[in-house]
Fold this protein.
Amino acid sequence: MAQGGDEWELSKENVQPLRQGRVMSTLQDVLTRQENASHLAMQQQKQAFELEIRFYSGEDPLDVWDRYINWTEQTFPQGGKESNLSLLLERAVKVFHEEKRYYGDPRYLNLWLKFKNFCSEPLDLYSYLHSQGIGTSQALLYITWAEEYEARGNKKKADAIFQEGLQCKAKPLNKLQCHHRQFQTRVAQQVLQGISEEGGADAADAGFLETSDPQRVFLAVLKGKGKKKQAPVNRTTDVVKPLNVQLPPPQQVPGSSRFKVFDENVVTTPGAELHSLTPQPWAALPPAKAKENEQRAGPWNSGRHPHSSHVLEVTSSLPSFIPYVEESAQPAITPCKINPTINGVLSARKPGKEKDPLQRVQSHPEEKEQKVMYYKDKVCAGVEEFSFEEIRAETYLKKMRKKREEELQAREQRRVELVQKVQEMERLLNEMKNKEDQNLVEQPTQMSEPHAMVSSSPDVLKSPEQQNKDAVFSHIVLDPENSPAYKSLSLLPSSVRDSKLQLKQQDQDQLCSLDLDLCASTLSGPMPISFTVFDELLPENHPNRVPVPCARRPLAPVSKPQVPIIPKGGGVMPEVSDDLAGIEPLNEEAIVTEHNDKTLFPIPEDTCDFMRAACVVSTPFHGVTAQRVESEPDSGRTINETERQPLGEQTPKCVDSSFNQALGVKKLSPILEVSQEDTRSSVSSSASSVSNTFVDHVQISEELVSTHCRASITNKTVFCFPEDELLVVCCGELHRQLLKPFQNLFSSSTNFHQETELMPMIQEETNLKLGSENYCIKQEVVVDEANKIYLGALDTATDAMVAIKVDSQPIPWDFYINLQLKERLGVLYQEEFQKCNCFLYQNGCIMLYEELTSISVWSIIQNYVTIHENYIMVLVYHLLRLVEKLHTAEIVHGNLHPEILFLGFGIGAIVSCNKNISILKLVDFTHSVDMRLQPLSSLNGFPIIETQQAQQILSESSSPYQVDLLGIAEIVHLLLLCEHLQVHQEDFKWKLSKIIPKYLNSELWARFFETILNADGKSTVSVLRELGEEMKPSDSVYQDLRNFISFLV
Amino acid sequence: MAARQLSRSGITLKGSAEIVAEFFFCGINSILYQRGIYPPETFTRIQKYGLTLLETTDAKLKLYLNNVVNQLKDWLHSCSVQKLVVVISSIDSEEVLERWQFDIECDKTMKDDSAPREKSQKAIQEEIKSVIRQITATVTFLPLLETACAFDLLIYTDKDLEIPEKWEESGPQIISNSEEVRLRSFTTTIHKVNSMVAYKIDS
């Protein structure tokens, strides 16, 4: 009944037992592993350890060795050469030989004790340890030492060792005592037994186990028994040693009773003196490794006593007994002379090659004459030699790692500071706001207040880069001449800039003068790190950016996105930042201080960053203050950043160029506040204008929701959401409010199920019970973090799949959209959309879309690189139809992408009998907008906005329906060319950047793209219908399609 | 052996109980010897299952084990025992160092008067042999028991069973942070015994 996990038993002979036991999992691994794989993994681990040894820079190098050795023991159960364990141990003990601090460390002692197993004479080792004071405070030393003696039968010495240990108060003392007690018990028992059985003078010394069992003779020849000639299990029957050998072994050499032949069956007699435990200097160490089958030198018949007896009585040898050294120097020649020329195998063993490891450890090589000019210690530190390249590589990697860590830390710190700054600013601005009405006289004080407050922050946010920052800040250059209309108020990440300042050009001088005053008065301490922080961010992304004239690029006639939209991946960064190129001034400090890397907020645009930070940090403000300041709606200038109104007051302002230069690189002090009085008026005016626009946009009655959401959906800007969650939450909140009046509608619908419990956890390969059916979840198609779509199948074995969309918010938005579609499309609904069920739980919502296959358009794109054009046309046609229907029902999908379009089930059948049914099904309506309910006039809130193409193509005047058109274009582009949509402008029209290859009907597609990309102003429904007509495939194509689909399915 | 008498007629419930009880007797003895709970000189060799096993000669221990085994036999007969556990703990610190657990699965449909099951004695013996061999082989990975240890026998029975005299209720004596290794099992078709050992790993 051998089971799989029994390798350990089968290889038990090959596994050395360890004192501390083995970890079974490691053992199993090692024993079952394939040769190559295991070898590689082990080598790698070994390499890792070796590296660690060489490059360890901590306090406790012993730890590295300790772990290495433990790992080796567990990983190489056979011990043996592969593991290099003996070498490893030898190295280890040698390395720390000089380190007195480890002498009392139990780990070091353990190393020695493990090393002892490889030494020929463990007792020597113990004596050595004792003499050197290694581990003499550990009970383990004495315990194992005494064990050794006991094993050799020398009870007296064992006892002496225990006594010594007790005297030294070795720790843990009770353990030592306990072992001592047990030892004594054992001895007593044996003595009693011995007395009862033997009754002899040397009974007290007899540690020999006397039993009445027949004992086998050692190394007797086994005689096969029975038919198979196998040695039986019970092997004691044949050759039995005589029991109870009482007589001392006969002296082989009569007359000279000094030496006794060592008889293993009798304990060594008191001939071996009690070895005194006083530490002695060890001049030379005894014996060479006991070689097997070794016979000492000497003619056979000389009468000289074999020296071998000494070897085995070594335990008590005194150090001054030099002969041991000499002995080892004697060549051990086997008595039988072998002609080396004839038989190379058995050549005479040369002395000195196999020295006792202990001896090696103790010999301190004196090589004062030689000086090693390479880092020998690094090369030879571990067991293996490292090559120079490896060492260099490791040092390099270490440096890199360190650098990266530092960078990350610095970034983190900056982020924290930024956040704090933001908070500070908010607080200050709030106060500012409160003091709006105060007159000018009080300005200076006011100004200095915030200044004081801000300057207090530096204390809070002390950083090593403080100096740097200050210097940086000083360079907050706002080159007035360079920025004609626009002052980049980079100083405060929060506020600044923009339009407010634009309005106040005329106040520049005033401001400047005020600034100067301020400056003079506030040259106190390090200023606003806030400002500097801001600057640093910039340069991080654009170190090469020169203080470009802050002139904004005039808006192109075709709408350009006005705000840097934060792409999710930050990939759009360079492009977007180009838009804002003119905005921030740079300072050399910042350039110098490196960092081309991405920052936490990919867009360098400070206010956007700030807004993002604000969103992260302080939600309430975010909603309320995210109002656009429309400074010059007619100037055609777009405002690139959203500003926070209150914060705007703290615009730092413009600096005189001369002033700027005067500041120099390392100087401090900056200007902080600005003339509030000047800005205030404009602020208030702009505030009012903002609120006006704000009001205009509010369509929905719920205020909270509107402030939340409208903040993002303001006229001129596309808001940047830091995280997806925010977007979803925003929409979630919105949806929740919108759906309030529809609750009755839901509950009356047959496909709606209100469940009382919590939403079940859904995982792949599990079953899910929805309503009355059980579904088996096959696959997960993640859309985004808040929504997941799973493919499942009914337990009953149809091939129809269902899509299960899981929403973490208990808001049945999808269902609502479906209901509306049903209502508005009437009969046509059946053609395009499939049956869906909604399950509303306490903490989430599940939508069940039935009758699908597992093939999504995305999978088609991925798996089939070249799809026949006809098929593409069919898919496109159906897609167009689908979207056309949506638009007819005044619903904008908002997030069309290939992953949520699935092929409907039973297409083959459908296609053949009823060509009117769409083969594509949508499974996600999270971002859909019901235009009747929620007439939007801006495009914010659609995820697609964040892409590059969207920013290019769509403008603020585009209708939301165009978002869907763009989505379609993207999908078609992917289907056709397997690449994302790329466009460029030609003659005010958008054209594809990629050329459609010849094998496709390029005319058709070119027209298609042109129409769909430049559909501004036209009704999308008509556009779609038009395109649909073009794309409508013929009957023959449908035939092929059936084949294609059956091939897919 | 007693079981041999039944060999021709198959395994009955009573026979199975005896086989299992015998196994436990030998198994526990082996464990005690292997782990050094009792000094090796107090053990004597016997032949069983085709192996040379060691049995204790200590009178008190022998008596104790026999009592346990007889009680166990009864319980096996009535199919009310689920586990037998040998707990090895250090005498001084009372810490549980090793735990040998034998799970017993009883076929409750088997009654005294049911027909005997077909399984050869030899097969059962082979199985038991391999289990005991494996117990011996555990030395490869079990840590050395440094301190003097004592053992405890725990038997898991049905809830409503009456506690016999000389027995008392006890906790499971589980080892925290233990390594567990599953060993072989054997079955008499009426009783199935799974074995495993849990030990404390010293890192």
In short: Residues 10-200 of chain B form a domain with the Cell Cycle, Spindle Assembly Checkpoint Protein; Chain A fold (CATH 3.30.900.10). Chain B has one domain: 10-200. The first strand of chain B starts at residue 43 and ends at 48.
